C-alpha cells in the first residue's frame, strides 16, 4: 500500500469519522441538547441532526467501504480535538449563537468536572457506536458472500502484484479472491467488483490463495 498520506487514505479516514460522528451527533442532540422551548422542529434542524445519520447509515449498507476495528481511534481522536477546541474557544471568550459563554451547555468548562465527564461519556458512546457499525459491516460482507458464493479480501495492509490468468473458457479460477475497483492510488478496494461484467471490466487486484502463500 502507498503512503498513508495519499488522498485516498485521507478520504477513507474522513469517511469513517463522518459515518460514526453523524450518528453520535444525532443521538446526543435529540437526547440531550434539543429543547423544544428554545429550538424549532423545522426542516433545517431535522436535516442537520437526523437525516445526516440516516444517509450515512444507508451509505454503510450499500457501499462496500471497509471498516477496520483499530480505526475506532479516528472518530475518538476527532472528539478529543473538538473537546480541546471547546476549551480554547470558551477561554478566549467565545459564545454560542444565543450569547452564552460556551458552545454547548453540557460542556461548559466553568464546571470542569462535569464537562470532563461528558467528554468521556461521548468518547465511550463513540466507541460503542463504532463497534455496532463494525458488526453491521461484517454482517453485510457475510451476506454478500453468501448470496454471491464468493470470498473477498480487501488489500488494505498487503500489496499485490497484479492479476491472474483466466482459464480456457474465459472464467477466473475458483481460488481467486477479488477486491472490487482497483484503480485507486493506494490499492484499497472500496466497492465489490465483478470480474466478468458485460462491458469486459477486468479486475486486477486479486490474488490466488497459492500466490498469497508463496509471497507471504
From TrEMBL:
Domain of life: Eukaryota
InterPro entries, alphabetized: Rost
Residues passing through the membrane, by range: 12-34, 46-67, 73-92, 113-137
Gene Ontology, cellular component aspect: membrane
Keyword Nucleus: no
Keyword set, alphabetical order: Membrane, Transmembrane, Transmembrane helix
Annotated protein name in UniProt: Protein rolling stone
Provenance organism: Bactrocera dorsalis
Lineage: Eukaryota, Metazoa, Ecdysozoa, Arthropoda, Hexapoda
